[in-house]
Amino acid sequence: MRKNIVAGNWKMNLDYNEGLSLFSEVLNMVKDEATGAQEVVVCSPFIHLHSLAQLAKGNGRVSIGAQNAHQAESGAYTGEVSAKQIKSVGATYVILGHSERRQYFGETNQLLAQKTDTALANGLKPIFCIGETLQEREAGQHFNIIKTQLEEGVYHLDADKFAQLVLAYEPVWAIGTGVTATSEQAQEIHAFIRQELAAKYGQQVADDTTILYGGSCNAKNAPELFAQPDIDGGLIGGASLKSRDFTDIVKAFN
Ligand code: PEP
């Protein structure tokens, strides 16, 4: 049975103290809640990871993730951070293939396939992001784009390895824009992804894969999005920077 998850992506926001204080608020607010997402993941800048992991110790519901990891195990890559280093400070997730990494840092499906392998080899669970641009959607290419991102980014994995991934459908036109995909648009793509996974890995793997929606998700639209049969939670950017908004999204499951 797949898990529902709400993951926050802080991006390059919050200094060290601001991050710790926001995370402490989030921890307090989700601590005693029996309802809502089964797992809450906070994906912070690298500088926060160790401290957040320490604070989250003993809380079985809250996990920590990074927002990127290098494809190499280690070496002369000045300024980069490896999957092994991320894992060593207590993080368990890593976002890979976020559209900002694809757009501003030239990350291709081929590079992301390598990053996925290295993350998995070091015990990190990738939150693998896929999604089309506005231009691609308007050209009717969205299904093909998503299929190619899956084929080139993750389909080299065998079923056991694939089962460790979380997928996030993030239409690029909805990220940070205030324009959310309608629940029908999001559900249509999530159902398509699950159908693709069933064809590749079989129905059981498809049914067990958590597929998050991301793109201007907030406390207001989350309940309707999360009520869709193939939407298993959210990857939250802007709204993850406010403890009340984020925890309201965590609770937005029926
Ligand atoms: C994101 O960056 O993954 C994201 C979904 O951002 P936002 O919620 O701000 O649109």
Give a description of the structure.
Pathway: Carbohydrate biosynthesis; gluconeogenesis; Carbohydrate degradation; glycolysis; D-glyceraldehyde 3-phosphate from glycerone phosphate: step 1/1. This is Triosephosphate isomerase. Involved in the gluconeogenesis. Catalyzes stereospecifically the conversion of dihydroxyacetone phosphate (DHAP) to D-glyceraldehyde-3-phosphate (G3P). One of its GO terms (molecular function) is triose-phosphate isomerase activity. The longest helix is centred in the last third of the chain and has 19 residues, at 183-201. The chain has an eight-stranded parallel beta barrel, surrounded by six helices. Helix 1 runs parallel beside helix 2 (46-56), helix 1 (16-31) runs parallel beside helix 12 and helix 5 (109-121) crosses helix 7. The mean pLDDT is 96. The chain has 254 residues and is α/β, with parallel strands linked by helices. The two termini are 17 Å apart. Helix content is 44%, strand content 15%. Bound molecules: phosphoenolpyruvate. Phosphoenolpyruvate binds next to strand 8. Residues 9, 98, 170, 175-176, 214-217, 235-239 line the site of phosphoenolpyruvate.
